[in-house]
Specification:
13 helices, 490 residues, globular, eight-stranded mixed sheet, single chain
Amino acid sequence: MRENTYDILVIGGGVIGSAVARELSRYRLKIGVLEKELDVACGNSCRNTGMLHAGFTYKPGSLKAECAVEGNREFDQVAKELDIPFKRTGKVVVGFSDEDRQNILKFKRIGELNGVQGLEMIDKARLNQIDNSAGGKFALYSPDSGILNPMLYTIALAENAHQNGVDFFFDSEVKAIKRQGEYFQVTAGDSVFSSRWIVNCAGMHCVTISEMLGLHGHQVRGFKGEYYVLDKKAKDFMDIPVYPAPNAKGGFSTHATPTVDGNILVGPDSYITEGPDDYACTRDHMQGLIKDGSAIFKHMKAEYFIRNFAGTRWKRIDPETGEVLDFLIETSDDHPGVVNLIGIESPGLTCALPIARRVVARIQEKEVLEANNDFNPYRKGIVRFAEQSKERQKELIANDPDYGEIVCRCETVTRAEIVQAINNPLGAVTLTGIKNRTRACMGRCQGGYCETRITALIQEQCKVKEHEVMYQHKGSGMFIGKVREVLDGE
C-alpha cells in the first residue's frame, strides 16, 4: 500500500466535494479528494434538474436559504470563471386553485424575507406572454432563477481545483478511518492516506463516513425521483422552467424544465427509497410523470421521449420526529480536524460554493491559512463545435483537422472534442465521463451510432483493450472482445 500525507482530505467528488476542494485551493495547503467512483459527478450531483434556485421555499434564517440566495446572486461570475453554460431564464410556479394561490403567496413572502429579488404574481395573460406552453391560471414569476449543466459544473469545479494543485483519487472508496496523534489514517481503495483534516462530503453516504469519524446519531432519509428526458424537438415549446404550486411544506411535484443543452426534463416525482444507489426507473412512476407532466407542459408527448433516469435526495431528519432538518456543517472540539457535512441535498447545486466557503471558515477558526497567491479561478472548457459560427468552425478545422470529423451525429460532436475529453485534466476515462464532457451519446439515438466509435478512440488514446473500457462504474465493461475474435475462438 502507498501512503500519502495531506493537510486536508475531502471525501467525495460530487459537486459539494469539488466545490470545497476548489475553495481550499485558494490557500497554501496540500489537498486530496477521495472518490469511490471512476470520475467526479457520478452520483446525485448529475442526477437532478440542473436548476439554479432563487431561494423562496426555504425557511428564513436557515443555511439552505442563506446559501441558496448567495449562490444564486454570484453565479453569473462563477459561470464565467469556470467556462460553463448557464442561462438566467427565470421560473414560473403555476397554480390552478385558491389553495394553490395561498401556498404560492406564502412562499412569495418567504422568498422576500430571504432576500429573493423580483418575485411577482402574474395572471394568465402575462403567463402566456412568458411561455404559452405552460399550464396554470396564474403564477409566481421568479426572474433570478436559472438553468445549468450539473455534470459540467461539477467537472469544472474539480478541474479548476486540480489546476490549482488538488490531487484527485478515483476508485478510492473509504474503508476505514483511524486517528493517530494529530493525523487521521484513511484507508481508501488500495492506499493509505494521512491527513490533519477530514472534510466529509460523501453525500448519500455521509452518515457512513460520519460514523467512521466517531460522530454518531445522524440520520438521513432517501427520497427518489424519476425523470423523462425529451428530445430537442420539444425545445421550441418551452422557454422557462414551469413548476406546479408547492404543497404546504414547500415541496414540489412534477415540473418541466428546459436544459441549457436544449432538451426538456419532466420530473421528478418523489417517494421514499431505502437504497443509496437506487437509480432504477419504474413503469408506474413513468406513467405518473406523463399524467402530472401534461398538466404543466402541454406538449408532453411520447414521440419526444428519448431517455429516463432517476436521482435520490438524502435529507437529514430528526430521528425522533422524522422532521426534515436544515443542512448541517458540523465541527466539534471533541473531534478536532473534522468538518462534517450532513444532509446536503437540494438546493445543493446552487449552494455548493457558499457551503464550501463556510467549510473553509470552520477550518480558519482553528488555524491560520496562508493565501495561495498563484490561485487562478479561471478554467477553460472544451470548445463545442456545434455552438460555433461557420467562420469559427472553419478556423477550428484549419487549426486541428480532428474538428472536421463528426463522431456523434445527433449532437455534432467532433473527434477533436472526444480526444480532449479523453485527455481531461483529471485523468478520468469512462464512456459516461466522455458523455458528460461533450454530450456525445446524449442525442436522439442515445449512442447507437457513436458509442463504439468513442470506445475505439479511448482504446487508441489510452492504449487499452476493449474489455478494459468502462461505461461508468468499476466492473461496468461493455465489451468482451471483437466479434471475429470471439467467433474464431469458439
